[in-house]
Amino acid sequence: MTKRKKRYRLRLWVVVFLFVLFASLFIGGAYYVFHWGQDGQNNEKLQKELEEMADIVEVDDNTIHLPDNEVLVNPSPDKESDYYYYIKVPFMQVDFSKLKEKNSDTVGYIKVNNTNINYPVVYSGDNTYYLTHAFDKTKNSAGWVFLDYRNNLDDLSDNTVIYGHGRVDNTVFGSLKKVLTTSWQENKDNYIIRISTPRYNYVYQIFSIYTIEAESYYIMTTFETDEAKQAWIDTMKKRNTAPVDTEVTVEDSILTLSTCKDNNGQRIVVQAKLIKRNERTNS
Questions:
Q1: For 49-85, what is each residue's pLDDT tens digit?
Q2: Which one of the listed residues 121, 122, 233, 260 is annotated catalytic?
Q3: Which CATH number fits domain 32-279: 3.20.20.100, 2.40.260.10, 3.40.50.2000, 3.40.1160.10?
């Protein structure tokens, strides 16, 4: 075999190898994209079914006329505070009977104004299972909205943390990125998060919105001293980029929503304080 033929054959093998390599990468990428999109569509369909099961109703308790100790949580001494604007928001109450039949891990239901976040919240005892499983416990890269393993929605910690993937298709916590926009932040009525559990209904007032590199400090759930909690609150408030300046004290129960902003490890964080709670007479 001549040297020319050997070089030709070598080049041919290189071309074939590169073709197979790129074809494999293309097919693998297409397969991933297809299933990634399919997972989002499956979750979106499931979410709509669950919303109907939840039979969501609003409970107007005329809070503004009630004594502070009935439903109000850590009332502001400033009667001109936005606190007294937001406590007029009605509770959201959910029927959990069918949701729990479908998944006994269901511990609550969350809604964030003017986002797509309108989901049952699940709890598995760890922070990994619902990263890769949907509400119906099928394998799903979109995961679901889940409670931190250290928390209990009916026995609140200093800070209660709820997670969800930041999907670009706006499923799960993907639409949480809306809170970073000027149009969302300029609407005063958006600064409310409502949660319903089989025992309680909660209304939270948002006090901090920001992005940050992944860390463990903002998802701390308990503090050994009031001084440690106040230092934490001060840090969370300093991070805020939204046009709000809400009073928060060590007496407040905090809610933190956390999701990925991008593939570089940044997080979108929304934090709120509990402003009113009522104990349900039925589930």
A1: 998 988 999 887 665 555 554 688 998 888 889 999 9
A2: 260
A3: 2.40.260.10
